[in-house]
């Protein structure tokens, strides 16, 4: 790589030599030739092959916001010749750390430790490491990348909830719906036999008493399914802290439900979050960002991302204080009539409260610590 100063030296040197030869001015040659000769000498510093082996480790690889995280870079000379001192650059998130690596003998290694800032929820990428060799004037340099980048997941702060997601989903095996079927577990009533009915469900005792065949009817059992929708639309939040509160609430509810084995789908405007394990869910919450929405309305967002999901028994809509109640209501109409719909609004420093709009419960949370008891009240 040629620095800006290097390009200036090259341009001035070439111009001076060409002009000196064309015009016959020895003074220009005295300027141009030394500049080009100096550039050639600088190029000598780039000659040679490096034989480094570089390893990058982050411990621990997953932390909660504010927790301590350390990184370790180990540089080893795995060649047969000594290596001269070199500078290593290591991108860590938005910053770049520089380390002066001394000369290494064959097989010798050098270790550098560094701290990783974890004051914000994010996925912090460390690496790839780059060795930088160049001349003392800074005209030319050679940059070589070593090792693959390593991710550090900074998870949102969460709060423990009561069992069964604070009572939102009580039955892990399923809950009866209002739909009547001829084959299920929850008994509903008896009716007269009709051609085509399965004779296994004939109630013989009642049939003998009434003189006609009677068959059992059942209420269709729906397996518990929780769907959480999180708005990432910047227009729905009064501040970034409000969005962080919303993400923390989604993570708290989601990981509790995953631990219990209940089916769950967590969707945000940018992605469908993985939810097969609590760790995978928290990793994906670290990637969520606040920004402009690509959907015209909140209902469009909900329709687009829940279209292929199974119908939920409980739906939770999480957003900020600037999302209108009409948008919550419009999103609630996307779910089955027998589904429980809860709208949770993150509003920093607000008094926790609970209200009901039609069949939808609306919860306002001002601090993450308010979430467990407000959910418990809503479930009660």
Query: What is the CA–CA distance across the termini?
Result: 67 Å
Mean pLDDT: 85
Strand content: 25-35%
- The counted number of beta strands is 20
Rg result: 33 Å
Structural class: alpha/beta
- The helix content, as a percent range, equals 25-40%
The number of distinct helices, counting runs of at least 4 residues, comes to: 9
Structure description:
α1 runs antiparallel to α2, α5 packs antiparallel against α6 and α7 packs parallel to α8. This protein is 28% helix and 33% strand. The longest helix has 21 residues. It has a seven-stranded mixed sheet with strand order 16-15-14-17-18-20-19, sandwiched between helices. Strands 5-4-8-9 form a four-stranded antiparallel sheet, with no helix packed on it. About 3% of the residues have low confidence. With 380 residues, the chain is of the alpha/beta class.
Question: Characteristics of this structure?
Answer:
single chain, 380 residues, alpha/beta, seven-stranded mixed beta sheet, four-stranded antiparallel beta sheet, 9 helices, elongated
Q: How do you describe this structure in short?
A:
The protein has 380 residues and is an alpha/beta fold.
What's the topology here?
Blueprint: H1 4-23, H2 26-44, E1 52-59, E2 62-64, E3 70-77, E4 86-92, E5 95-101, E6 109-115, E7 122-126, E8 129-134, E9 141-146, E10 150-155, H3 163-167, E11 175-181, E12 186-192, H4 204-210, E13 214-222, E14 225-230, H5 240-260, E15 263-268, E16 272-273, H6 278-285, H7 298-306, E17 314-320, H8 325-332, E18 340-346, E19 353-357, E20 360-365, H9 371-379
Parallel strand pairs: 2-10, 14-15, 14-17, 17-18, 18-20
Antiparallel strand pairs: 1-3, 3-6, 4-5, 4-8, 7-10, 8-9, 11-13, 12-13, 15-16, 19-20
Helix pairs in contact: 1-2, 5-6, 7-8
């Amino acid at each position: 790589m040629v620095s800006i100063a290097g390009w200036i030296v090259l341009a001035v040197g070439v111009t001076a030599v060409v002009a000196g030869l064309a015009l016959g001015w020895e003074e220009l040659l005295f300027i141009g030739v030394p500049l080009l000769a100096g550039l050639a000498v600088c190029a000598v510093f780039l000659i040679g092959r490096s034989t480094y082996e570089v390893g990058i480790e982050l411990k621990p690889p997953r932390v909660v916001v504010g927790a301590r995280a350390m990184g370790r870079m180990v540089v080893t000379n795995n060649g047969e010749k000594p290596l001269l001192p070199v500078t290593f650059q290591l991108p860590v998130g938005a910053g770049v750390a520089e380390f002066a690596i001394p000369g290494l003998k064959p097989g010798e290694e050098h270790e550098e430790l560094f701290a990783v800032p974890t004051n914000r929820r994010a996925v912090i990428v460390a690496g790839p490491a780059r060795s930088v060799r160049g001349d003392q004037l800074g005209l030319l340099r050679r940059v070589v990348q070593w090792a693959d980048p390593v991710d550090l997941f900074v998870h949102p702060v969460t709060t423990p909830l009561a069992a069964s997601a604070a009572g939102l989903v009580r039955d892990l095996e399923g809950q009866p719906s209002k739909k009547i079927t001829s084959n299920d577990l929850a008994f509903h009533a008896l009716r007269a036999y009709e051609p085509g009915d399965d004779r296994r469900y004939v109630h013989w005792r009642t049939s003998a008493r009434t003189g006609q065949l009677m068959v059992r009817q059942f209420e269709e059992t729906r397996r518990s399914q929780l769907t959480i929708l999180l708005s990432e639309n910047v227009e729905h939040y009064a501040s970034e802290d409000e969005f962080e509160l919303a993400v923390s609430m989604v993570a708290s509810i989601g990981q509790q439900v995953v631990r219990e084995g209940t089916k769950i789908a967590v969707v945000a405007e940018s992605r469908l979050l993985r939810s097969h394990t609590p760790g995978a869910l928290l990793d994906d919450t670290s990637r969520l960002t606040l920004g402009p929405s690509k959907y015209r309305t909140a209902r469009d967002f909900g329709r687009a991302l829940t279209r292929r999901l199974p119908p939920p028994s409980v739906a939770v809509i999480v957003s900020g204080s600037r999302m209108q109640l009409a948008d919550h209501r419009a999103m609630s109409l996307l779910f089955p009539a027998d589904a429980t719909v809860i709208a949770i609004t993150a509003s920093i420093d607000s008094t926790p409260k609970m209200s009901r709009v039609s069949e939808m419960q609306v919860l306002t949370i001002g601090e993450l610590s308010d979430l467990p008891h407000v959910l418990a009240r809503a479930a009660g």
